[in-house]
Write a structure and sequence with these properties.
Number of strands: 2
Shape: elongated
Radius of gyration: 63 Å
Length: 433
């Protein structure tokens, strides 16, 4: 009885329904609700089907990987039959003894008929290797090798083999070869050496139109470029100014140091040099490095610009104003005294008066009281020249108080007496007015 594919499917579904009914009855027997037992039964059946599919796939893979045992047995059986099969074309009959006798007689007859090797004449045979040798000579100088004798059978005696090798050695020795110069007959070069110049002869003078011989051995100095210094400093200034305007002060300083701190570069004082060094000081000032900035400004005043230059005093005033703007006059004391000396030579008492005010502010910042006392006294003389009575009174008050704080009551009392004199002078000037 053959069961079709539809029969298998029908059988499978019947079994499935039976299993489902049994499972539901089992769950229902435990006192579960009918709906819950149905759901659990369905889940159980689904899990069983999934497990069956997994087992079936594993069996299929296993059957593919394991070779058929019957097929392997047939292959082994065929190999055994092939190894035990008798070899064909092999005669088991014994050879007749007359065959060997006939073979030996034929061998002797063949060796008797073969001609003996001719002796090589003692004539010299010259082989020319030149590419320009005449064709007529090639016919006479060609070596005719003896025709190779028929190969002797494997039963050739050792004596005959030794004689044949000895004859070949003699033939090789008798062949002569042309000298190696014949290999280069086609090269036509004049190799005659020119006579050397006698000792003490004058060197030859090259004509003026010949080019100068080149130096084939170049060094690093020959390859080093030498750009124009003026173009180099202009480029450095432009790059440094660009970085300064963009507030990249560190980058601007790096560009300036790369140009100014080169040990192989001698920086000469020019307008561009002063501009570059001042730009360096401005970068340090913006970074809050006031001591370095003051030193760099001082370098410009002492090294790159002279006092006779018309730009000397305006440059000092610009440096002083920079520190005054941030109320750090203490870093500009050296510039103030230099400017004060220039104003004294110019008899500009008003500028001297203003510079003394700045110096007094700087000494108060540094709390250098002895120098501040001396500055007050010098400042009083300028106030007297200017006939600034109000200014004199103010200075006397500050000086007397400072002396009293320092413990010098006598000088403080003198300041008070001098103040009274200034007040009387003020009253007298008012009456005249």
């Amino acid at each position: 009885m053959v069961i079709t594919k539809e029969g298998h499917i029908l059988k499978f579904f019947i079994q499935l329904i039976i299993i489902l009914a049994l499972v539901e009855g089992l769950f229902f027997s435990f006192g579960l609700d009918p709906e819950l037992s149905i759901v659990l039964g369905v889940l159980f059946v689904l899990v069983a089907l999934q497990a069956r599919m997994i087992v079936r796939r594993l069996n299929i893979k296993k059957s593919r990987s394991v070779p058929d045992a019957a097929r392997a047995a047939n292959v082994i059986k065929n190999l055994k039959k092939a190894s035990t099969a008798p070899k064909q074309n092999v005669s088991s009959e014994k050879l007749d003894s007359g065959v060997f006798a006939q073979f030996e007689s034929n061998l002797k007859r063949q060796s008797a008929q073969s001609p003996a090797p001719k002796k090589q004449k003692d004539e010299d045979v010259i082989v020319s290797l030149s590419t320009k040798a005449d064709k007529s000579n090639t016919a006479t100088t060609a070596v005719h090798k003896p025709e190779p004798a028929e190969e002797a059978p494997t039963t050739e005696s050792k004596i005959e083999k030794k004689q044949r090798l000895e004859s070949l050695r003699k033939l090789n020795k008798s062949i002569k070869v042309d000298p190696i110069g014949s290999l280069f007959d086609d090269i036509d070069e004049n190799l005659e050496t020119k006579p050397e110049d006698p000792v003490g002869s004058k060197p030859k003078v090259l004509p003026a139109d010949l080019p100068i011989p080149s130096n084939e051995f170049l060094t690093g100095k020959d390859l080093a470029s030498s750009p124009d210094e003026e173009e180099g400093i202009e480029l450095a200034i432009k790059m440094a100014i660009k970085e300064f305007e963009e507030a990249n002060h560190e980058e601007s300083l790096a560009i300036i140091r790369q140009y100014t701190q080169n040990p192989n570069k001698k920086v000469e004082t020019t307008e561009q040099t002063v501009q570059l060094v001042e730009l360096k000081a401005n970068n340090e000032f913006e970074l809050g490095q006031y001591d370095k900035a003051a030193q760099t400004y001082q370098e410009i005043v002492t090294q790159h610009i002279s006092k006779s230059s018309p730009d000397f005093l305006p440059l000092l005033e610009r440096f002083i104003d920079k520190f005054k703007d941030v109320e750090l006059e203490k870093h500009a004391i050296h510039f103030m005294f230099t400017a004060l000396n220039e104003y004294r030579q110019m008899h500009d008492h008003l500028k001297m008066d203003a510079t003394y005010d700045d110096i007094e502010t700087a000494y108060r910042q540094t709390e250098d009281w002895p120098r501040l006392i001396q500055t007050y006294q010098n400042h009083l003389s300028i106030k007297k020249v200017l006939k600034d009575y109000e200014g004199q009174l103010d200075l006397l008050d500050q000086l007397g108080k400072l002396l009293y704080d320092q413990g010098d009551e006598d000088k403080s009392r003198k300041c008070y007496k001098q103040r009274l004199v200034v007040e009387k002078e003020m009253e007298r000037m008012d009456r005249k007015a």
